[in-house]
Amino acid sequence: MARARSEERKSEIVRAALEVIAERGYRGASLGSVAERVGLTQQGLLHYFPTKEALLVAVLEERDRWDTSGARERELWRLDLMDSLVEYNAMRPGIVQTFSALLGESVTEDHPARAFFTERYAFVRGNMADVIRAELGEDLPGGLTPERAATLLTAVMDGLQFQWLLDPDAVDMGASFRDFVRLLRERREGPGPAGP
């Protein structure tokens, strides 16, 4: 019973941390502000998460669990599910903003989320390459390999999020993502007919 209560409390802290980071950014979010939001002292929060970095990684892992329903098995990913994820993200700007802010901050050498994002992107690119190969084969437009297409697909998803956050009325993430997938589905065309 105590273990279940502890896990419930940790989840509550992670949700509060997501909110605080969305409002203030990682560097502006303090353990004290998260603790206050869940009715704990900072010392009490440290009982559950010994460092700010540990809490940050828990926040990122929780966000990924929401996106994949807790599963990281490659066979569960398909292009149509990725499309659904893009549409779902359009309904939760706070989560997208938090993820995007942390991603942007993580490119610095000393950022505590750098290892998380590096590992996550390696996994996502590998996963997407497998999905592309299974659904579209090896014959992709422009001579792309599934691995190169996976890198582009990942960049499209995250790049659309940044553009949408900056100007949501001008950027339709779902439609733009589907446009890119449609381009990937086109087969390479051979040379056109010879002239007269």
Beta-strand content estimate = under 5%
Shape: elongated
Q: Please identify the structural class as seen in this structure.
A: mainly alpha
The overall pLDDT, averaged over residues, is 84
The secondary-structure element order is HHHHHHHHH
Largest sheet: none
How many strand units?
A: 0
Helix content, binned percent: over 70%
Low-confidence stretches: 70-75, 188-192
Count of helical regions:
9
Distance between the termini: 83 Å
**If you compute it from the alpha carbons, what radius of gyration comes out, rounded to the nearest whole angstrom?**
20 Å
Describe the structure.
With 196 residues, the chain is an all-alpha fold. It has helices at residues 2-28, 31-37, 42-48, 52-68, 79-89, 93-105, 114-136, 146-166, 173-185. Helix 6 (93-105) crosses helix 8 (146-166). It starts with a helix and ends in an 11-residue tail after the last helix.
List the SSEs and their pairings:
Elements: H1 2-28, H2 31-37, H3 42-48, H4 52-68, H5 79-89, H6 93-105, H7 114-136, H8 146-166, H9 173-185
Name the descriptors.
single chain; mainly alpha; 9 helices; elongated; 196 residues; 0% strand
